[in-house]
Amino acid sequence: MWIKNFRHKKLQAALMFLIIMLCSMLMSASISILISLDKPFKEFAKECNSATAIVYPYSKTDKETIALGEQFAKISNIERVEYSRVHYITEELSLNDKKIEGFLKLTEYKDSVFGDVHFLEGNKKTVRELKDDECIIPACVSNQDNIKVGDKIKIKLPSGDVFYKVKGIYSEVYEMSTSYDSDILIKKLPEGMNSYLNIKLYGKAGVTGAELEEQYREKYDGQMNGMMVTLEATINNNQIAGNVIGAVFLAIGVIMLVVSCIIINFMIQNLMITDAKAIAIYKTMGYNSGDILSMYLKFYFLIISVACILGGVASSSISNIILSSMFKNMGKVITNNVFVPGITCYVVIVILVIGIIYRIINKTKRVKPVYALNGMSNSGTKKKNSYKGNFKFQFSAIGIALRGVIRNRKNAIVILITSIVTIFSINFGIVSLDVANTMKDNNDYWLGVDKSDVMINITDRKNTAKVEAIIKNDSRVNYYLSSNIATEVTMKWKKGMKSTAMKAFVYDDYSLTKLPIIEGRNPETSKEISIGSKVAKDLNKTVGDYIEIYLGGEKRVNLLITGIFQTYYDMGDCCRLTTSVYKDNNYDFRYNYFSIYLKDKNQMNSFIEDTKKRIGGNGNITARTEAFSSIMDMIVTPQKGAIPPVVALVLLVGGINIFCIVILRNTSNEKTNGIYKCLGYSTWHLICSNLYYVGVLAVISIIIAVPMIILLYPSIMKVCLSMFGFIKYPVTYNYFHIALANIAVLIAFIISTLISSRSLKKVNVRDLVQE
C-alpha cells in the first residue's frame, strides 16, 4: 500500500515535500538568527573583559574629567575606573588616497583597558612593542576598507601628513562597527594633536551599565557632565541589522507557510476526489475508515517530517551566512545550534499541516463501496438554461479559462491568494531596495544634515577663518552655511529614563537649510528647539510644550518645542538648535562644519579636488551624500544583502504553488479536457486556456497587490523602525522597477503554467470512451 501511494502520488508528494522544506528552511533560519545574536556578544564581552560602560565627558580638560571619574569611583557598584587618552579623527583619514569613513579615534594603548582584546592578527606582544609610527586597527575598519597588516594609513593634519603602519588587527565589543566610536590603537599621540580623556567604568560582577548610571545619578542629583554608553546598549545596537533580517525572514516564512497550507488543503481535497474509487474498493476488501485514515496520515506524516528535518538542516547554511556577516568584525566563527529552531518549526509545521490533512481525509468515512462505480462526483445533473451568447467566444481558450474561474471559485481564490501574497512580497522587496539605494542621496531627511552639495569638517578650529576665506572667495560657490553638527546637550534625569543626552544640530538660520520637518517648524530664536521623534515619544512631548536642557551638561535653558523631525543619527536621540541659543546664554560656541551650495552641481568633483589641495589638513572635505556614510551603510548594506535572496525564494515558492494548482486543475478537469479533445480541440488550445486562466488571475492580483504595497509600505516600515520613533516613512516609488518586478512575476507564473500543463498531453480520448 505504501509503495502504491508513493508510485501514484510521486508528483504530489514531491511538490508537497519541496513546499514544506522551503518553509521550514526559512522559518528555522530566521529563528536561528534571532536566538543566536545575544549570547556570542555577551561571551565575547566577558572574554575581552569589556568595560561595563564608557563615559564621554563634555568637559575637555583632564582635571574635570578626572574629577568626574573620581565621582564614579565613589559609588558602591564600581570595581574600578580607567582613563583612555584619545584624539577624535575629524581630519581626512585615508589608505592609498582612498578615504576611510567612520567615527574613529586615535587611542593610546593601555594594558589595563585593552590588554584582553581579541587579536585577529598580531598579539599582546605586538601591541605592547608598538613604535611611534605603528598602529593596531579594529576589525571593522579592516573589513570595511580592506586594510591589511603592513598597509600604511595617512592622517592629513594641518602641520603635515602623519603615517601609521598597521601591525595588527583586533576586535572588542565596543569596536564592532564604524557607525559607532572605534579605537585605532597607537603607542602615543603626536605632540600638538588635540587629546581628551574618556572614562572606562568596570562594574562589579553582575552589575549592568544602566545600574551604574542610575546609582550615579541618584547620588549626584541626577546630573552627569558627560554621555554614558553602556555595554548592553552597545550589544543591542550591534544586533539591529541581525534582528531586522531575522524578523523579515520570519515574517515571509510564516506568510509562505500560510499560503502553502491553503495549497495543501486544496491539493488533498482534489486527491480525495480522485482516490474515492480506491478508498471504496479498500472498504469492500474489509478495511475500515480508521485503517484508511491511519494509512494516509502515516504517508503524509513521513513526507512532512522528512521535509521539515531536511529544511531545518539546510537552514543552518542560510543562518550561518547571515550570522557570519554579523560577527565578521568579531573575528570569530560563530556556529549556531539548529536543534532548537528546527524542533520548534518541526512541531509547528507538522501539527498545522497534519491537522489540515486529517480534517479533509477524515471525511473519507462517508465514502461507501457504491462510490467505486462513480467516485465521489455528483452523478446527478442540473438542467442549465439554454445559452444565447457567442458560442465562438464561449469555447475559445480565453472563454474556457473565464468559465473555469466562474465555475471553480475555490481554485480561483487559491490562485488569487497565492498571487497576491507573492506579488506583494516581491514588490515589498523591490521598493525596499529602491529606498535603500537612494538613502545616501536623501541623507538630509534620514540623518538631518542640510541638503548642500559639499561639506567641510574643520579639523582645527584655529584655522576656521582661513578655510572660510577660501570658500568665500571661490566663484563656484553660490552660498555656504556655518554649523555645528552633533554637539551634545542633556536633559534633567528622571528615574526610568533610558537616555538623557541628545546630539544637537546647530545652524544660524534654518530657512536656508530647507531641512525637512515632520510637525511644526524648525527653531528660529534662542528660545526654541526642534526635537527628534524618538525623543518626543520617549518624553511624551509635542509641539508647543517646553523642554529643559543643559548646554554642555551645565548651562540650563528652558526651550519651546516648535517642531519634530526624524533621524537615524545617534539612534534618533537628536535635536535642532539655533546658534543664538548658545550666544545669548554666553556659552562658548564654535562652528565645526561648512555646508557649501554650488552654482553648478556638475562642478562638484572638480571643486572637491581643488579645495582639498587649497585647505590641506585644515579641513576634511566630502560630498554631502557621503557624509556619515558609515551610519547609512549600517542600515543599507544588510538590506541589500538579505532582500534579493528572499525575493528569489518567494518567487520560487509562488511558482511552485502555481505549478501545484495547475496540475490539480488538470487532474480534476481530466474528463472535461477529454471531452474538448473529442470535440477537436488540441492540447495547445487547452494549454492556452490554462495560460489565460492563470494570467487573468495574476493580472487581477497585480491590480490588487500594487496599490496595497503603495498604501501599506510606509506603515509597515514605521513599525519596523519603531526603535527610531519614526512618525512618517516617505517613499518615492520607482514605478519602472515595480513594473519590471511584476512582469518578472507574470513570466514566472507563465513558465510554471507551461511546465505543469504538459500533463494535458496525457489526456487520452480513449480513456474517456472506456470510462
Describe the 3D structure.
There is one protein chain. The chain has 771 residues and is α+β, with helices and mostly antiparallel strands. The chain folds into 4 domains: 1-37 and 239-377, no CATH class; 42-238, no CATH class; 391-440 and 629-771, no CATH class; 448-627, Barwin-like endoglucanases (Beta Barrel). 51% of the residues lie in helices and 18% in strands. It is built from 26 helices and 22 strands. The strands form 2 sheets. Strands 1, 2, 3, 4, 5, 6, 7, 8, 9, 10, 11 and 12 form a 12-stranded mixed β-sheet that branches. Strands 14-15-20-17-19-18 form a 6-stranded mixed barrel. Helix 16 runs antiparallel to helix 22 and helix 16 packs across helix 24 (683-720). The longest helix has 40 residues, at 629-668. It is elongated, with a radius of gyration of 33 Å. The relative contact order is 0.12. Mean pLDDT is 82; it is low at 375-391. This is ABC transporter permease. Pfam families: FtsX (PF02687). The chain crosses the membrane at residues 12-37, 244-268, 299-318, 338-361, 412-433, 642-664, 691-713, 733-756. It is a multi-pass membrane protein. Residues 251-355, 647-764 form the ABC3 transporter permease C-terminal domain.
Structure described in brief:
The chain contains 26 helices and 22 strands. The protein has 771 residues and is an alpha+beta fold.
What average pLDDT do the residues reach?
82
Number of DSSP strands? 22
How far apart the termini lie comes to 25 Å
Largest sheet: 12 strands, mixed
Spatial shape: elongated
Approximately what portion of the residues adopt beta-strand conformation? 15-25%
- Sheet/helix structural class: alpha+beta
**Share in helix:** 40-55%
Total count of domains: 4
Backbone CA Rg: 33 Å
Taking pLDDT < 50 over at least 5 consecutive residues as the criterion, the unreliable ranges are: 375-391
How many helices in DSSP terms? 26
InterPro entries: ABC3_permease_C, Membrane_comp_ABC_pdt
Keywords: Cell membrane, Membrane, Transmembrane, Transmembrane helix
Subcellular location: Cell membrane
Protein name: ABC transporter permease
